């Protein structure tokens, strides 16, 4: 029970001040005139002013509230290093016991796990949340059990009580980490891209060699080992071997006594892209289809097109002097012998043998395909004749043989069952509403996959792999009708674009492939196949046993499954015929960027309220009571500031000047002043 005097004026305080001024003036006039009752008049004015101010005696029935100690327990990944978990657990139990032994004090324990999306240790976010839930007037102290490596110090709230850091870890800890300073998402195939690497030691580093081994592997292959100086930035040129995703793994082997090797590996996933696609288009004669191919290839700024068109065949005799036919001779030898490997794709559009390209040139084209090149045949009536390029060294790489029949009738191209699963022809738009083509060359498939048919289910588009390269045969020269909108047209540009990119081995158009796409710690495993089903995929994590994943069909020729990786690192995927790798998680986990325990990050937050930093390896500190504003930490102890918070259960008020007493005093003083002055 407590009592205090309070004032509840009957009039506003400014009015009361005016009344007080009037009383003071009146008393002053009385003194100036020499009236003997001026003192009694002044006392009467004071009584009236006191009555107007409303003095009252207030009594409160109060119940004391406990002081709250907030204990933040860092449970992030870096706390799993060495014996930090054990230090934290032991200190947590000891502090809980010490707080329980104190009168009028309770403990709030808050676990601080890893943040999502590689956010590190969000200790201040956890503190802000608990302070929002607890009355700030009851917080007597804040204790953090942590290695001090927090990542949201800039978000620290206004602290109501001293903050103490009980530091885990050891003074003799040291660690080595690998840093990749720049890692572009894309790089041009065949051209070096420079990565800047650094091997950095921190903590109590032992004396020793200043070189460290660095292992570099691409897509999980056998690594190459280099000796790299420690503490220096190293520019490393890297050339991507193929298009699509390239997984580069850089690893520094764990040294003796090192705190952890979790930051010794960096996974960089870079997409290989072609600088410019070089295409050689050989047209046997001018026609509308040739213009279609040219427009398609020229519309892509990333394509370098060399177009070789025979405008005047050798057998044509029109009397024009040879010297007036062209300014320079066309470099057939240079293109088909010396620089053929510079091209990504060669297209023969209605080309037939005329003696312009000798057999040795065409034989070199066949060799070019077998060694990894690509050839597309857009066949017209020329392909069915005696001068067909099938009757040349190219025959050994072509997937179908002409029967010498040219079918001149309208038909609508149809995607085969196999074609619905092939990425070149699957999900082409507006199937069933395509316009007709008016000519087809009859061919007999010898190898490859028939993905489109024409008249009476005869093969129209045949795709094949030859050696390391690819060949496509389109048994019609009327694809351009779709581009002109004949009978509604069709997806001409999309079909030809897919066809060209499949032949140039773009990863997204591979018909038989296994790959994965990562989102955080989850990977989507994708298997594309021309078969009716897909075999299970075996996933090999960085540590632990293999996991068998069964795939489900998500579309024609496409099977998928989701898998949550248990840890950051390189995962290997394999089935009966394929093997690939993928990296999960960031290139450098934020929680392991700095692993040496330190109080420097929290020091600016601890200093204003005079808290302390205590290493747990020196012992668990005791708890003391300190007054607000005094030093809150010392050797072997940390302080708590009692807050004296309470809860008011009941309030009673009684007036100090009852009305009858005010009337009696004021009237008595006024009458006394009048009588005194009357006698005089």
Summarize the structure.
The chain has 680 residues and is of the alpha/beta class.
How would you portray this structure in words?
With 680 residues, this protein is α/β, with parallel strands linked by helices. It has 5 domains: 2-63 and 648-679, no CATH class; 66-172 and 597-644, Rossmann fold, CATH 3.40.50; 174-274, Macroglobulin (MG2) domain (Immunoglobulin-like, Sandwich); 277-318 and 325-503, Class I glutamine amidotransferase (GATase) domain (Rossmann fold, 3-Layer(aba) Sandwich); 513-584, Immunoglobulin-like (Sandwich). It contains 12 helices and 37 strands. The strands form 9 sheets. The protein has an 8-stranded mixed beta sheet. A 5-stranded parallel beta sheet has the order 4-3-5-6-33, with helices on both faces. Strands 8-14-13-10-11 form a 5-stranded mixed beta sheet, with no helix packed on it. Strand 10 and strand 11 form a beta hairpin. Helix 1 (13-33) runs antiparallel to helix 2. It is elongated. The mean pLDDT is 86.
């Amino acid at each position: 029970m407590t009592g205090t005097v309070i004032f509840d004026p009957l009039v506003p305080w400014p009015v009361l001040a005016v009344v007080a001024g009037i009383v003071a003036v009146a008393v002053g006039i009385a003194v100036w005139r020499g009236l003997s009752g001026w003192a009694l008049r002044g006392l009467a004015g004071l009584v009236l002013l006191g009555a107007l101010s409303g003095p009252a005696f207030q009594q409160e029935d109060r119940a004391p509230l406990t002081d709250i100690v907030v204990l933040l327990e860092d449970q992030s990944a870096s706390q799993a290093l060495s014996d930090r978990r054990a230090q934290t657990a032991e200190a947590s139990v000891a502090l809980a016991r010490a707080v329980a032994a104190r009168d009028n004090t309770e403990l709030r324990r808050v676990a601080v796990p890893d943040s999502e999306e590689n956010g590190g240790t969000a200790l201040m976010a956890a503190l802000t949340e608990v302070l929002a839930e607890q009355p700030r007037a009851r917080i007597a102290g804040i204790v953090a059990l942590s290695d001090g490596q927090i990542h949201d110090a800039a978000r620290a709230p206004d602290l109501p009580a001293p903050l103490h850091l009980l530091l885990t870890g050891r003074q003799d800890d040291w660690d080595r980490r690998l840093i990749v300073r720049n890692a572009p998402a894309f790089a041009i195939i065949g051209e070096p891209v420079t990565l800047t690497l650094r091997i950095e030691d921190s903590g109590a580093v032992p004396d020793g060699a200043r070189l460290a081994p660095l292992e570099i592997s691409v897509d999980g292959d056998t690594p190459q080992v280099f000796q790299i100086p420690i503490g220096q930035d190293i520019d490393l040129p890297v050339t991507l071997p193929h298009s699509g995703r390239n997984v580069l793994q850089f690893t520094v082997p764990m040294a003796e006594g090192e705190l952890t090797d979790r930051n010794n590996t960096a996974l960089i996933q870079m997409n290989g892209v072609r600088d410019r696609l070089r295409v050689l288009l050989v047209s046997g004669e001018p026609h509308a289809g040739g213009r279609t191919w040219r427009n398609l290839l020229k519309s892509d700024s990333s394509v370098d097109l060399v177009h070789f068109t025979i405008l005047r065949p050798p057998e044509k005799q029109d009397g024009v002097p040879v010297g007036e036919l062209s300014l320079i001779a066309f470099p057939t030898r240079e293109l088909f012998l010396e620089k053929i490997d510079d091209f990504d794709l060669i297209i023969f559009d209605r080309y037939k043998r005329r003696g312009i390209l000798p057999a040795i040139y065409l034989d070199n084209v066949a060799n070019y395909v077998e060694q990894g090149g690509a050839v597309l045949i857009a066949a017209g009536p020329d392909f069915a004749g005696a001068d067909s390029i099938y009757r040349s060294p190219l025959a050994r790489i072509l997937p179908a043989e002409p029967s010498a029949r040219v079918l001149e009738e309208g038909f609508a191209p149809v995607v085969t069952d196999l074609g619905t699963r092939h990425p070149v022809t699957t999900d082409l738009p507006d199937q069933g509403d395509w316009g007709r083509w008016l000519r087809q060359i009859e061919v007999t498939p010898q190898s490859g996959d028939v993905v489109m048919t024409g008249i009476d289910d005869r093969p129209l588009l045949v795709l094949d792999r030859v050696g390391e390269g690819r060949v496509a045969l389109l048994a019609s020269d009327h694809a351009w009708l779709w581009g002109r909108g004949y009978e509604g047209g069709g997806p001409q540009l999309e079909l030809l674009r897919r066809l060209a990119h499949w032949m140039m081995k773009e990863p997204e158009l591979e018909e038989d492939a296994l790959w994965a796409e990562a989102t955080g710690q989850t990977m989507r495993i994708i298997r594309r196949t021309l078969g009716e089903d897909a075999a299970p995929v075996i996933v090999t994590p960085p540590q632990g046993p293999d996991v068998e994943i069964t795939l489900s069909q998500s579309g024609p020729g496409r099977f998928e499954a989701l898998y949550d990786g248990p840890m950051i690192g390189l995962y290997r995927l394999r089935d009966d015929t394929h093997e690939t790798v993928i990296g999960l998680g960031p290139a450098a986990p934020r929680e392991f960027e700095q692993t040496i325990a330190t109080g420097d990050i929290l020091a600016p937050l601890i200093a204003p309220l005079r808290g302390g930093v205590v290493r747990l390896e020196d012992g668990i500190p005791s708890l003391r009571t300190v007054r607000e504003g005094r030093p809150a930490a010392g050797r072997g102890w940390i302080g708590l500031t009692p807050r004296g918070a309470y809860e008011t259960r009941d309030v009673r008020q009684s007036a100090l000047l009852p009305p009858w007493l005010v009337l009696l005093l004021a009237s008595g003083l006024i009458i006394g002043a009048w009588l005194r002055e009357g006698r005089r």
